[in-house]
Amino acid sequence: MLLLIFSCSRNAQQRQPNAESLNVDEIPLYHTWYSLKEMEYGMPFHPLPDEISPDGFFPWAGITSHHILAHEYLDAWFSRLAQMINPLRFYILSPDHYGVSLEPYSLTVGSWESGFGFVESDRSKVRELIELLEVDLDPGVFMVEHGVSALMPYIKKYFPQAKVVAIIHGDESPVNTVISGRLADVLENEFDETGKQENFLIISSDFSHKGGPEDTYINDNYSQQYLQNSANNPWNMVFCDNLAGIYILDRLGKNNLESVIFYHTNSWEISGHDKDDITSYFFVYFADK
């Protein structure tokens, strides 16, 4: 099941090589599903867990869906996150769903109209990354990438002061560990002991795709083994559409991740439709042990 979130931009060029030289009229503007009123917030479908983390659990990373079919769980995941931490910025890792990136790592200095107000890029951090990764800005891909835009209403709703660094990357299978490893190396500077107090890493990902109940159960069982115990299970046993993001999370976690699975569901359980074309969802928090 694929839900497309289309965005638009204001005077956005296909590629902007110099972020520092842009003036306000050249900053790309993207819309989101909520700013376009493609769907309203509704009532939760199921009771969600009251207690999901041990005392003193301070997550610095997490996994959440980018399908608005699961929007109530997205909302609940961000709401609970806001009870635990208040980061200055979110680093979002999203796959390139449509293969339109011009760079191995696509970045933007743009802003998102969330429906609750604008979510701004942390432009100084984006400038640092484009220099370290030796890439140009690639704003065009963000016009259509729901792996980023789907999350912005929740960020603005629950973290109104936070900025974002959105990164879209290829999700080849098998994962190109050279390209993904370089991004992990660069992000290590942002997720050292101090960085984990200021920054939060979001792996934007949906899990098992296009299977029936039996295939989905088998695939999710493999994924859950890693998500519950990453120290003793390999990252590439996960079935998802952002395996490169899982690899980067694993690298940054340095075999020291403690996880809490907030919720696990799938598109068939939510909608009752498309039993033979199921997408599954894990909502997870990660902290250091």
Descriptive terms for the model:
about 290 residues; alpha/beta; Protocatechuate 4,5-dioxygenase, Chain B; seven-stranded mixed β-sheet; three-stranded mixed β-sheet; 9 helices; about 30% helix; disordered N terminus
State the helix count: 9
Spatial gap, N to C terminus: 35 Å
Number of strand elements: 10
Q: Architecture in CATH?
A: 3-Layer(aba) Sandwich
Which of globular, elongated, flat, extended, rod-shaped describes the shape? Answer: globular
The third-level CATH topology is Protocatechuate 4,5-dioxygenase, Chain B
Residue-averaged pLDDT, rounded? 88
Helix residue percentage: 25-40%
The biggest beta sheet, please? 7 strands, mixed
Radius of gyration: 18 Å
Strand order of the largest sheet: 4-7-3-8-2-10-9
Q: Give the number of domains.
A: 1
Structural class: alpha/beta
Low-confidence stretches: 1-19
Please indicate the percent range of residues in DSSP E strands (runs of 2 or more).
15-25%
Would you write up a description of this structure?
Residues 1-19 have low confidence and may be disordered. Helices cover 29% and strands 19% of the residues. A hairpin with a 4-residue loop joins strand 5 (111-113) and strand 6 (118-120). The chain has nine helices and ten strands. With 289 residues, the chain is of the alpha/beta class. A seven-stranded mixed beta sheet has the order 4-7-3-8-2-10-9, sandwiched between helices. Strands 1-5-6 form a three-stranded mixed beta sheet, with helices on one face. The protein has one domain (59-288): Protocatechuate 4,5-dioxygenase, Chain B (3-Layer(aba) Sandwich), CATH 3.40.830.
